[in-house]
Write a structure and sequence with these properties.
With about 70 residues, the chain is α+β, with helices and mostly antiparallel strands. Helix content is about 20%, strand content about 15%. A three-stranded antiparallel beta sheet has the order 2-1-3. The protein is globular. Bound molecules: zinc ion. Zinc ion binds next to loops.
């Protein structure tokens, strides 16, 4: 899971807490905090899958975050 301070590569990343999206345009860019909620982990968003509105990946990630990091 891409997180704050990493260079996850070009792509779109979504905050699992507030669904704010951050676009990384260059592989050398460093992923910052979520601009909306200051969250520090993100989900990779496959642009081809944006029409998939069930968002099971997001809820799975939230479960992982809650159980793994004690939030
Ligand atoms: Zn956020």
């Amino acid at each position: 899971m891409p997180s704050y301070g990493e260079q996850p590569g070009a792509g779109t990343y979504e905050c699992p807490y507030c669904t704010q999206r951050v676009v990384i345009e260059h592989d050398w860019e460093v992923l910052g905090e979520c601009p909306a909620c200051e969250g520090f982990v993100f989900l990779s968003v496959d642009d081809d899958a944006e029409e998939n509105e069930g968002q099971p990946v997001v809820s799975q990630a939230l479960d992982a975050i809650r159980s793994g990091q004690g939030l």
